[in-house]
Amino acid sequence: MSNKGALNAYELADFIGYKNSLLVKEKSILYDGNFTRGCGVAWSNTSACQAEDHGFKSRHPRQIFEGNSIVHKITVFSVLSLSLLALGCGSKEKVYKIAIAVPLTGDIAAMGQGMKRGAELAVEEANASGRFQRKIELRPFDDRADPKEAVNVANQIVSDPSIAAIVGHLNSGCSIPAAQVYAKNNLLMITPAATNPKLTLQQLEPSWKWVKNVFRVNTTDDVQGQFAANYCLQSLKIQSVAIIHDKTPYGQGLAEEFQKEFETKGGGVLSFDGIAIGDKDFKALLTRIKSLNPQTIYFGGIYNEGGLIVKQARELGLKATFVSGDALQTSEYFKVAGSAAEGSYITNVGVPPQKIPEAKSFLEKYSARFPQPDLQPYDHYTYEAAKIALDVLEKAGIQGDSIDKLRMIETMKNLKFNGVLGTTEFDEKGDTKNKAITVYLVKGNNFVPLN
Fold first, then answer.
1. For 173-179, what is the mean pLDDT?
2. What are the angstrom distances between the C-alpha of 2 and each of 26, 40, 51?
3. What's the CATH superfamily of 95-218+356-434?
């Protein structure tokens, strides 16, 4: 949508949520600017009632969208349409909202959709329990695994005062900049998946002028990378490695932690190369790596590129053991890599949910509620993050008709929560004190835990 021009009447009708009720008299609405400048909220994520919440009261049709700096001339609505609008906003049900921001479209949408399912289950359970006087609503936002879009999404989230907390993001590259938006607005952020240490460490920097609002229920790249390096050296007896990463804060950060520990403990890093997300052909790089004859290829990145790398390595006759991190522990990896995935070693944060007694109920409820999709690596982490957000909302957040968001953040600092991840507590940075890592061997399209 451009900033100047003619807006179709049905587009605006769709925006205010009464497309089927409006009596449209003419075919277009003239406007002379970007509506978001007038009300401070995103066009595509704002309902009619939200518009009223931001100061747009039902009045004369030529005045309804007057802002401080822009006048939007409306020429198409009947008095009946405005009456319907006012009636709808007057009867709006009050709810508490939890936002989830993950990639719901794009190359890694399978992981984001799985995380959304985990959060949905937590919210459904909360509503069924009768713990809250108001309905809990999950608001999903698609950050497309893009840092710029993540910041846009964050601004949309903080514009809604009824959102009590944000669960997300998946990618470290999205989480790090978005966290600052949430902090400026005193909004609790709980990530179930972002692993780069900088996400929470930035809160300790002098430049961080806001509340320390960021918490994560998963452990970090420094723990996982070091674990993988030591496993290669001690258990697999590997002395040489070629490292590939995808240049993202997650992938490169994980690879650098692996490299640092591997070299410190006496291993040899023969090469360290970055690729671009979305690349498909790695044979030139792998041909060069083959000439170095490494015992192992270590990859820091996502399953799409990881699957292609191991597949093309095997096609070139490169027999080096393939080792990677948590973003490959998904059935999507098998779809990309095919039979080349066999024999891969994949590390992941935490303990397999099947081995945690408290997680048994979750696994049963998840499979009953979502029988078709496979459990993705962060679904139970997202379920836990949403449960924690709801717990602190119930204990500290609800203050009459308002939400005390600062009190929710303060409560998190001393939280001790028993759930599907075992016992979750947070250190001074906001990181979980649970530092467990598991290594899996791929056998017959299954991830078999080895430790």
1. 97
2. 21, 17, 20
3. Response regulator (3.40.50.2300)
Q: Tens of pLDDT along 269-285?
A: 999 999 999 999 999 99
Q: What are phi and psi of 182, to 5 degrees?
A: -65, -40
Q: What residues does CATH 3.40.50.2300 cover in the chain? A: 95-218+356-434, 222-349
Q: What is the pLDDT of residues 5-37, one digit of tens each?
A: 334 433 333 343 333 333 332 333 332 233 332
CA distance 183 to 155: 11
* Residue type (1 letter), 76: V
54, 121, 248, 259 from 254: Cα distances, Å: 43, 30, 10, 9
Query: Is this model's pTM higher than 0.85 or not?
Result: no
Q: What are phi and psi of 149, to 5 degrees?
A: -65, -35
**What tokens appear for 306 in the block?**
């990881």
Exposure string (b/e) for 240-271, b if CB count within 10 Å is 16 or more? Answer: bbbbbbbebbbbbbbbbbbbebbeeeebebee
Preceding peptide of 169 cis, ω within 30°: yes
As given in the structure block, the two tokens for residue 331 are 């059935």
| CATH superfamily placement of domain 222-349 | Response regulator (3.40.50.2300)
Task: Please report how many Cα atoms fall inside a 13 Å half-sphere around the Cα of residue 128, on the Cβ side.
Answer: 6
What length is written for the chain? 451
Give me the sheet containing 214-216, strands edge to edge.
Answer: 135-142, 95-102, 163-168, 188-191, 214-216
Cα 412 to Cα 428: distance, rounded to the nearest angstrom: 11
Task: Name the percent of the chain in helix, strand, coil, to the closest 5.
Answer: 45, 20, 35
d(CA 121, CA 162): 20
Backbone angles phi, psi at 440, to 5 degrees: -120, 145
Sequence-ordered list of residues with C-beta below 8 angstroms from that of 410, at least 6 positions apart, any chain: 396
